[in-house]
Amino acid sequence: MRLSALLTACYAYGGPYKLLFLNLRGGQFIGAILALSCYAWLLSILSSHHLAIASGNKAIVGIGTYLSIYILASMAAIWLYFEKAWFEWVSMGGDLLSVAGSIAIAVLTRGSMSACSGLFVAGEEAHIEKSTGQRACKLQKVVFATGICNSLMFLVTFLLFAALKSGLVEKEPGKVTKETEVGGDFAIEQ
Q1: Structure-derived torsion over alpha carbons of residues 98, 100, 102, 106, reported in degrees to the nearest 10
Q2: Rounded distance, CA 65 to CA 72, Å?
Q3: Alpha-carbon dihedral sign for residues 63, 66, 72, 77
Q4: Whose CA, among 58, 62, 78, 103, lies 20 to 30 Å from 178?
């Protein structure tokens, strides 16, 4: 089956929205994995220098793990349950929690934008080399930026699900009523 025929068949069964949501979830997943891996590496640097890790820093790893698992489960559920009415409610609830989690990540790492504060327990930053501390601040800035970007992307997916749920957007635009083969491809008839 050629790609155009596959995309046409996908388009016929809620495909444009499935593809849109999968692309958004893919971007969210990249952001969540980036934040999780950067912050886990950052905490491993602190741990290897025998520095105390603040509880807020541990929370960022937990939130990033939740986001990664939620996004993977949501991507699978989009393919399996996209046409079900309950799926929109579950996705909207998960997206609201994810917006809150992404905002929490941004709030917990906001100190990196001014003076790299909040990363070290008071008085312990002197025990780490300057280059390692600068790298840690840059990683914390990356996590801050991904927290903001992910919160915006989760808000977009929440609003799209709300629009689908309220009927503002057709769930199946250009639905295939009859499969006719034209030169090896499917044609969409309205």
Answers
A1: 180
A2: 11
A3: negative
A4: 78
| Positive or negative torsion for Cα 155, 73, 41, 46 | positive
Return d(Cα 121, Cα 110) in angstroms, integer: 16
Q: Tell me how far CA of residue 1 lies from CA of 6, 7, 184, 187, in angstroms.
A: 7, 10, 9, 14
> 3-class DSSP state for residue 182?
strand
Question: Strand, coil or helix: what is 102?
Answer: helix
pLDDT, tens digit, 9 for 90 and up, residues 22-41: 888 888 999 889 888 888 88
Give 131: exposed, middle or buried? Use CB within 10 Å, 0-12, 13-18, 19+. Answer: exposed
Least Cα distance to 40 among 178, 140, 165, 172 occurs for: 140
Question: Which residues face 182 on adjacent strands?
Answer: 185
Of 165, 164, 151, 162, nearest to 16 (Cα)? Answer: 164
Residue 132 backbone dihedrals phi, psi, to 5 degrees? -65, -40
Q: Of 25, 18, 33, whose CA–CA distance to 74 is shortest?
A: 25
**pTM > 0.85: yes or no:** no
CA pair distance 61, 129, nearest whole angstrom: 24
Query: Does 180 score more than 90 pLDDT?
Result: no
